[in-house]
TrEMBL record:
<comment type="similarity">
    <text>Belongs to the FAD-binding monooxygenase family.</text>
</comment>
<protein>
    <recommendedName>
        <fullName>FAD/NAD(P)-binding domain-containing protein</fullName>
    </recommendedName>
</protein>
<dbReference type="Pfam" id="PF13450">
    <property type="entry name" value="NAD_binding_8"/>
</dbReference>
<dbReference type="InterPro" id="IPR036188">
    <property type="entry name" value="FAD/NAD-bd_sf"/>
</dbReference>
<dbReference type="InterPro" id="IPR051209">
    <property type="entry name" value="FAD-bind_Monooxygenase_sf"/>
</dbReference>
Amino acid sequence: MVLKSFTSPEWRLDKPIHTERPVKVICIGAGASGLQLAYKLQKHISGFSLTVYEKNPKVSGTWYENRYPGCACDVASHNYTWSFEPRTDWSGLYGTSQEIYTYFNNFADKYALRQYIKTQHQVVGAKWTGSGWNVSIKDLTTGQTVTDTCDILVNAGGILNNWKWPDIPGLNKYSGTLLHTARWDESVDLKGKNVGLIGNGSSGIQLLPAIQPLAEKVTVFMRGPAWVSPWPGLEGRPYTDEEKRRFAEEPGHLLAYRRSVERGNNSILPVFFKGTDANNKARDVMLTMMKEKLAGRKELEEGLIPTTFALGCRRFTPGTEYLEALVQPNVQVVFSGVAELTEQGCKCEDGSEHAVPDVLICATGFDASYRPRFPIIAGNKNLQDVWAQNPESYLGLAAADFPNYLTILGPNSPIGTGPLLIGVEAQADYIVKMIDHWQTHNIRSFAPDAAAVRDFVAYRDQFMSKTVWADPCRSWYKSGSSGDKITALWPGSTLHYLETIRQVRFEDWKFEYEGGNRFTYLGNGQSQTETNPDADLAYYVREEDDDMPLARNKMTRIINKTGSVVVAEGAGEGRFFSGL
């Protein structure tokens, strides 16, 4: 269905103020973010048409794609859910990838979200027309490319789902079975095999303990050191039947448990500041525990434990079983990057050669840059070029000079300093507010002011200079580089982000209006109340004033009893320095 586009302001003159005009939205991706957007639009917006294009055969994004042995989320399972949608029957402290896939798949079914989704349809291009987007979509079942149009385009494609083979010469020479953790072949049997494993990031840390007992030998190739968190209680233990019963049956028990865990998740920011007591103490504890788990193996301590960057520069992952697996007799650790593949194995940068004739597994992750994988063109600019080196977003939500284009988990979103999914919810709420504003104010286009983006990036860089992320480690927080531009993380805590985007700062946006007149939304002079036969036309008359605060700071004090508030914007060195 193609909705009529109202390009003339006259249509509003016989309607009351804030009359909603139809809006057509295209969303890229039906992972967690795309599903949340569909849920929010369905719940809060009237007169919308939504199509969610998903390249995979099923929904759930990265949790559909990643199915390697041991794959799980390193966030506690009861808190890797939507804030309003608990699940009572998680198997253990950390949910497996299959359980998480099931959670989001069931979410799509429960709220009838599949009506908006087209699977096996991959967006391959988008071009701004001046009043909307022409979007090119490839039907992966037929190979045909079609064009769809929309008023507003939302990119919910995610950051960790564009997997890639490592940039190593000789991939086509290897005669054994070549696997990638993000494209796992479940038919491959590793029992009794001589296996190579490239990488010691999150995927490699989860995979090794799962395959070590099966393989005859595992050779692990590590390009660099990593902090691995063998923290007590983070072993991923299963829940007992009694715990599951209490979660499911005792009123308030699961909510209290979730809130207790979430308070801990929301208290981690101080650890990420360089030279602080919090960071130093956490480092000392982790150093002691890593040495203990490595069982006195000095060569492993020297190769694995970082000495040139602080704890937290790279994401650390719960990995007690990983460290224990490294010291098993059938595991060999090579502290060198792989320079080249041969028919039988790997030549390393240190000159050594290692035979891994049966299976070679690349736990080498994803293209973690924010450069779109397809052209997104507005005017004479392609976002692929603009975001090729140093992606600069407006609060993780939009890009200057790309109208009616919004992102979920765009650059500098809250993905490492507190809970993730509540940040996705907050971004979806923000997008709903922008769509509502477009509908009710006769707007043709909106885009963040380039000056606002520059001010935010300046604030980001100043904040990040004080953190451990600025240390010289190679990390996907920096789009895979070892530089000092932190492109992935929000400059602050998740709670800080929620306060930042709770209200739309319309002064940071540039708007263009249909017909060139910003006041046509005033309509025929009547309010919405006057046209509703069930409304009370004296709704504001009352016996006493209510307690609902109007000022942002007072609202924050109600939400945050600690007294941490947002100060007034606009003072000091720029729009973000004092406000954030």
